[in-house]
Design a protein that fits this description.
Elements lengths: L3 E8 L3 E3 L14 H10 L6 H7 L9 E7 H9 L10 E5 L11 E4 L3 H10 L5 E6 L1 H6 L6 E7 L7 E2 L10 E8 L5 E7 L2
Parallel strand pairs: 1-6, 1-7, 3-4, 3-6, 4-5
Antiparallel strand pairs: 2-8, 7-10, 9-10
Bound molecules: NADP nicotinamide-adenine-dinucleotide phosphate (NAP).
The site of NADP nicotinamide-adenine-dinucleotide phosphate has 30 residues, from strand 1, strand 2, strand 3, helix 3 and strand 6.
Length: about 190
């Protein structure tokens, strides 16, 4: 069984963006040291159209070969005219409103989201499944998440879009690794206690 990993950027107080989800306040923390880390350990989490200008679009995937994101997160790419933002992975977008996929490389999941994710996790692959977000999708899939990779940046937002758009429930995780960066960013990994 492979893992569903929620790989997510957030503030110290656990918000993944402003109240509308805009995460641009976090971008300044992607400095040289941090970028080298992403390049070395999670290159596939950078969108294809962002990798190309940096000349790193041929980096092999390290952790994930499949990505799932919510329609609102996918919309950000569509607004830039990009229909296949993670061309180096198999791409799934959860949506009940997108009647058909804007791109043959992107499969829409309209029904039985949890069942489809369980099928993806049951596939035989050395790579895990990257849950990209956003908040609502992560909330829907919270019980399916096996691993968290939380990239927290040294900012407090006070309010904003929560990491999970779900109700109250205590879920227990075990701390794996903690990596700190000169600019105050901290990347923690956790695995779910089953
Ligand atoms: N900080 C970070 O690392 C990070 C990462 C990713 C995203 N974000 C931010 O997150 C924001 C978007 O988050 P969000 O919570 O508003 O939306 P979202 O989770 O990206 O997408 C929500 C949409 O997903 C679809 N969906 C959710 N559950 C579903 C189900 N069970 N079956 C079928 N479709 C389902 C629905 O689409 P339809 O309405 O089409 O039915 C729903 O409106 C963006 O602004 C982005 O910037 C931040």
């Amino acid at each position: 069984m492979r893992k569903l990993t929620y790989f997510i950027a957030c503030s110290i107080d656990g918000f993944i963006g402003d109240p509308d989800g805009d995460a641009s306040a976090m971008l300044p923390f992607v400095d040289a040291e941090y970028f080298e880390f992403l390049k070395a350990e999670y290159p596939e989490t950078m969108p294809t159209h962002g990798r190309r200008p940096l000349g790193i679009d041929d980096l092999p995937n390290k952790r994930f070969d499949t990505i799932i994101q919510g329609r609102a997160s996918y919309d950000l790419a569509l607004k830039e005219g990009v229909t296949s933002p993670y061309a180096h992975m198999r791409q799934y977008v959860a949506s009940r409103t997108l009647a058909e996929s804007p791109d043959p490389e992107v499969e829409i999941i309209a029904e039985d989201l949890v069942g489809r994710v369980r099928e993806l996790k049951a596939e035989d692959s050395a790579f895990d499944v990257y849950l990209c977000g956003g908040s609502r999708l992560a909330g829907e899939l919270i019980d399916e998440i096996d691993e968290l990779v939380i990239k927290s940046y040294p900012i407090v937002l006070g309010s904003g879009m929560p990491m999970f758009g779900s109700g109250f429930a205590v879920g227990e995780f075990t701390l794996g690794s903690v990596r700190t960066f000169g600019n105050g960013a901290v990347v923690r990994t956790y695995s779910r206690k089953r």
